[in-house]
């Protein structure tokens, strides 16, 4: 199979041609034509992963990115510094693939934290191996963590991830809790074959003091098996959870937050009412409030999960340009951000990259 088949596009914007900024006002932030401002930076640092989740990666994994094409720890930190200092970024999250597959992850976190000027430094991970590295990561400046866990049934986990590693995930979760990274958030992608266990996962989350968020599956799987007619949507999930729990007062903790939080009547965590989050990416789009900007592991700006337009910052990082030039290109890339994912349209075309190749 080619890289294109497995979600790594052969498209890279000509580094000699900056994206158009026609009509863009002279302002420092990462604004777009629809009035949104990106303040949440997601940086993928690897395409490698220790699992092969069916909604993310092909069974054989993604093709390896040549080492020289990956951003280095120093380059990643330089982008973090530019994002925070010059572009108004408030939150930085490292993704993958699986960030723990980078041997220099603590260096990435440490260098980035040093230039983050108070911005949060977080990570999304599957938790495998986290128990062995959590202390060095916290010491380096990691402030928050999200762990992906779709089911607490070991057989279901093995089928979904193509790996029998659930005990290792549990060990990572316990390590994060012991290290004081709270509130610890658990991300669960809604799948047809795990829906029956959704209430069990919520019950487990309440018992273990973690905050659960369910996410509607998007058409970003490398196997391209996603079908709108077969996806589990938020309404169906609420019916299933409602058979065991009473959920009320849906709200968003922040207007730009993708998660709608439902209070779980009769339960508390850390002295406040417990909640369960639902990110209805497909059926209750929050594109109009999106505040994210993404950097792929190869150093391209991706303004939208569903837009294959990418702007190469790696070439600039490895030339003799200054930070302001890189910031200018980054602003231009975000100015051209599309209005939304467009999944409701008849002419919707799924992106070339899969989730594992973009960064979660």
Describe this structure in words.
- The longest helix has 15 residues, at 73-87.
- The chain is an alpha/beta fold.
- The protein starts with 29 loop residues before the first strand and ends with a helix.
- The protein contains ten helices and 14 strands.
- The strands form two sheets. A twelve-stranded mixed β-sheet has the order 9-10-11-8-7-6-5-4-3-12-13-14. Strands 1-2 form a two-stranded antiparallel ribbon.
- The radius of gyration is 20 Å and the shape is globular.
- A hairpin with an 8-residue loop joins strand 9 (247-251) and strand 10 (260-269).
- Helix 1 (73-87) runs parallel beside helix 2 and helix 1 packs across helix 9 (323-335).
- It has one domain: Aldolase class I (TIM Barrel, Alpha-Beta Barrel).
